[in-house]
Amino acid sequence: MRKLISTIVMFMFALIMIYPFLWMISTSFKQPFEVFQSPFQWISDQPTLKYHENVWTGTASFITYYWNSLKISIISTIGAVFFAAVAAYGFSRIEFKGRDTLFLIYLVAMMIPNQIIFIPKFIMFNALGLYNTHWALILPGLFTVLGVFMLRQFFIAVPKDISESAMLDGAGHFSIFLRIMLPMAKPSLATLAIIDFSWHWNDFENALIFLLDEKLYTVSLGLQSFVLENSVDYNGMMAAATAGMVPMIIVFLIGQKFIVEGLASSAVKG
Amino acid sequence: MKLNWMRRQQLVGYMFIAPNMIGVTAFIILPALFSIFLAFTNWEFPQLSADFVGMSNFSRLVQDEVFYNSLKNTLIFLGSVPISVGLGFLAALVLNKSVYFKKVLRTMFFLPYITTGVAIAFVWMLIFQPVNGPVNTLLMNLGISNPPGWLSSTSSAIFVFDIIWIWFLLGYNIIIYLAALQEISSEQLEASKIDGARLFHTVRYVIWPLVSPTTLFLLMTGFIVSIKQMGIFQAVTNGGPGDSTTVLSLYIYKTAFRYYDMGYASAISVALLVIIILITAIQWIAQKKWVHYS
Amino acid sequence: MKKKSVGFVVILMIVAALSACSSNNNNSQGTSGQAGSSNGSSDKVVNLTFWGGVPAEAGPQEIVDTWNKQNPNIQVTYVRYVNDDSGNLKLDTALVSGQNVDIFANYTKPLLSKRVSSGAALDLSPFSEYNIDDKMGAGAKEWLVDDKYYALPTKRNMHFVWLNKDALDEAGLPVPTDWTLADVEKYAKALQTDTRWGYASFPFWRDVVSFDGSLAVQGSVKEDGTSNFDAPIVGEALQQQYDMMHTSKVSPPISLIETTKMNLIAEFLGNKVAMLNAGEWVFRDANNLTDYPRDFTAAFAPLPRMTEGQDDFRYLGGLGDAIAINAKSEHTKEAWEFLKWYADGGMLPQAAGGRIPASKDADQAKAIELLLGDLKDKYDLESLERVLSNELPTFQVSLPQEVLDIRTEEFDKYYIKAQSLEEAIQNVVKRHNEFLKRN
Q1: Fewer CB within 10 Å: C terminus or N terminus of chain B?
Q2: Interface test with B, best of A35, A116, A119, A220 (most B CBs within 10 A)
Q3: How do the domains of chain A map onto residue ranges?
Q4: Where would one find the signal peptide in this protein (chain C) (predicted)?
Q5: Pairing mode, if any, of strands C273-279 and C197-201?
Q6: What pLDDT does residue C44 have?
Q7: pLDDT given at position C32
């Protein structure tokens, strides 16, 4: 009974959480003059598929944008999770001189405002010939400080005797990392992957500055094409944004499976 | 033999962190050092030359009222982080065991975290519309005859961002807490089913301390991510009305890319960096009082 | 505080950046069409990239398509950048990189000046066969940077008040030919209904039209180098705008416009605003009866002066869309060819969106025809003719962005009742003076 009540209460809160999305989806099926109509109507009087069709067949080629976003986000996420896991292991399971100082530098690096490193990054990529290529997004995307922090918290919590007994059996750090820690860390890795993927998928600023050719554009950059000279094509933008959410939801559902599967053995702890 | 092992250990340690360290150095630390250097110049992007101006950017900063105002707005905005972490903890507790349709609910709560900014920012704007907006319509129906002007008023606009941000971060906090809650043995959680008084007691004195390292992690990363957030401010109000929602990160962005004053923007960034480090250091020191490592 | 030049450091970095990317540059453009190069240079296809803020489908695509058909050897690609902070940043980084920009449109003088001083814009004076002053008229002068043309202003800026003529007729009011803000308020009161505002203006343009128009002759800076925003006329104009929002309530208050991102064009065309202080850019939507069904005739009036007897008032106008050639482009000659053609009539397909060519050699009658489309009966042609051909003295936006922002921030706080009129002016003056001291 109690479970039923809490389910109902949670659903009510969940509805508040998704209210803006419902609004967004609703608007994507509306006519322009209905966007601002009050009182708000969930279902348009003259519903139209025009804007959703336009996302895929219009002048802005969202199919290309989609493909670019997928490419960048998938490569970056896989790389970022891997490099973060390796570094997190180093920071948590191996004792060596200067480790904690280095970690402190990491924490500070995490705090640097993005806006201020755009121009230096631009100068660097330009010098390397990476400006106006997807590498300008993928390369920095392979390294996440927050991910290292997150996984470190997890690795620290794994009892020492697990790796110590493996070491007595002659296993080195690399095999402990690959065969014991990574499998145990699945839920944390999945969590990081979901979060990291969403950063790459939604990244607008880097894409804006580092990509020039329209055929290299990403979905979040493509949304700009709905900003007209003196107004915004809200219906078109909402339709594109709705379509843009689909991959994220799929990633979350896949990731959540791993989280649930590995739940019994894991946690994020300090 | 012993020494050799130590050396080996040292080497292996470096090998593990090296790949990430190189990337972070190249793409974050070096660019940041370059911009700290710029803080002592009057460089205007995209000009070809600049002069050293010593501390003058910083002496301008300490007298800059816009800077202090942005700092105040940033701090108010940061208030959303502990609230969202607290709500995330409560929601995770419930979502962990005592609901049906766990997966559906989790997905719904996580949805905000994965959204693209501009489109959803516009929706928020309409939701908080002072006339006819759903929030104020609801408040009027509840008998509040003079609801706040939300984004149209200098005194309430920044709080709308707090609400948006609580909403945005909640899903992230919940899934991290959910992962942490798995560590706690099920008897401890089962106990919470017995009666109201016990339930509060279990949560407050058993579960809360057990997840405190996670809480620390969420607070620290939450503050850092929030302090750097610029996009929603730019999309929803661009700092207005007046300067009531200009936060430091937006002020930096405008100074750098609207007024092309890279030198001064770098100086504000250095100040922001110092503030973030201070906030983090305080949390790191204060953790001894309340964070329990098992 | 001793100043040392660190110019060389920045220059070094940028030079390094440029030399490294020039190899890229070559293969990304210019070489793609060398199919028949054995026949000599005449067969070489030059590829140019043209950056502008107008959405491609609103004219630019048609323009480059026409050009490309007529000039198989010079192929132009149009790239649209959004004319906001981030879009301009994108253009500026692209210019620094030397990649993919040959021709670019500038929409404000301060931005053009920045680009000139960073060496991104080509000095057009060597192309002496085309006399810019002669072609474009006196307004071109406002685009001079250090007494030289680095960009070709191509479009006539036209600001005026759009009127709902049917509503005016109903109220028995004539189309005004010369009026003040007080007259506007009188009209607005008569036109206001339960479902319709009397008068509205775009927040940004409202301030430019009223304050910069009033100070155009005096200047926004006094002789002693301090801010002139405390001139009495500024306070009067401010008070009057405020009264229209809050006392007579004939104008939608700024808070409403901002928080709902109110689309004033749609409001005007939908008969929810009777008079709209705007400009030529409204035509694109006004001609689009599918998305903006409209059953009334639109008439036009000049911008209102702030007070009766204000003889130094200047009318927002002049020339716009100043198009420059990237100094680093490898094909500046071909770019210039395109630019001349564009200015002298190539740009006509954009006329439907309100962009009337400034060049005297462009077909003005054709431009007006395109502007009105097949909707001549939906416009009051007599008053349109009047606002298009009047000889009122004009000015153009020239304040630095930072000053414009300071003014908006402080005045907005007055408009939304967060500070008094005196405070607003005091604060603007104070912050403007600080700005002046720094620069």
Answers
A1: N
A2: A116
A3: 59-266
A4: 1-19
A5: parallel
A6: 80
A7: 37
Beta strand C46-52 with C103-106: parallel, antiparallel or unpaired? parallel
Find chain C residues with C-beta within 8 A of A209's C-beta: 89-90, 93
**pLDDT in the model for residue A261:** 54
CATH architecture classification, A59-266: Orthogonal Bundle (1.10)
Task: Give all domains of chain B, ordered by start, each with its CATH number.
Answer: 39-290 (1.10.3720.10)
B229 touches chain A (CB under 8 A): no
- Domain span(s) for CATH 3.40.190.10 in chain C: 46-157+318-362, 159-316+382-438
Percent share of chain C, pLDDT over 70:
90
In terms of Cα–Cα distance, which of C149, A116, A203, C49 is closest to B45? Answer: A116
The DSSP secondary structure of C52-99, one letter per residue, reads ESS-GGGTHHHHHHHHHHH-TTEEEEEEE--SSHHHHHHHHHHHHHT-
The most distant pair of C-alpha atoms in chain C lies apart, rounded to whole Å, by: 76
User: CA nearest B117: which of A208, A243, A202, A141?
Assistant: A202
Query: Please, where are the H alpha helices in B148-261?
Result: 157-181, 186-190, 196-202, 208-210, 212-228, 231-236, 248-257
Tokens encoding C54: 């107008």
Give the CATH superfamily of C46-157+318-362.
Answer: Periplasmic binding protein-like II (3.40.190.10)
Q: In which residue are the tokens 């009495």 written?
A: C232
pLDDT at A54: 84
CB C78 within 8 A of CB C52: yes
Burial class of residue A164, CB neighbours in 10 A (0-12, 13-18, 19+): exposed
Pairwise pLDDT comparison (C260 vs C191), residue with the higher score? C191
DSSP class of residue C122? P
Q: What's the fold here for domain C159-316+382-438?
A: D-Maltodextrin-Binding Protein; domain 2 (3.40.190)
Q: Give the model confidence (pLDDT) of B118-161 as tens digits.
A: 678 888 888 888 877 888 888 988 888 888 888 888 889 999 99
Q: Does B215 touch chain A (CB under 8 A)?
A: no
Residues of A in contact with B167 (CB under 8 A): 17
Separation between Cα atoms, residue A131 and residue A211, nearest integer Å: 7
> Residues C28-51: what's their mean pLDDT?
58
Distance CA C178, CA B24 (A): 64
| pLDDT value, residue A70 | 94
The residue-averaged pLDDT of A143-169 equals 83
The answer to whether the CB atoms of A90 and B252 lie below 8 A apart is: no
Nearest Cα neighbor of C34 from C47, C43, C24, C26 is C43
Look at residue B185 in the predicted model and tell me its pLDDT: 59
Scanning A158-187 for CB atoms below 8 A from B yields 172-173, 177, 187
**Other CB atoms closer than 10 Å to residue A161's CB: what's the count?**
8
CA A19 – CA A38 distance, rounded (Å): 17
**CA–CA separation, C114 vs C94, rounded Å?**
14
Asked whether residue B188 carries a pLDDT value surpassing 70, the answer given is no
Q: What is the pLDDT of residue C66?
A: 95
Chain C interface mutation, best of A121, A132, A216, highest count of C Cβ atoms under 10 Å: A132
Using an 8 Å Cβ cutoff, are A126 and A136 in contact? no
Q: What is the ipTM of this complex?
A: 0.84
The pLDDT value given to residue B269: 92
- CB neighbours of B27 closer than 8 A, spacing ≥ 6? A117, A121, A139, A140, A143
Q: Average pLDDT in the B103-128 region?
A: 82
DSSP state of C155: E
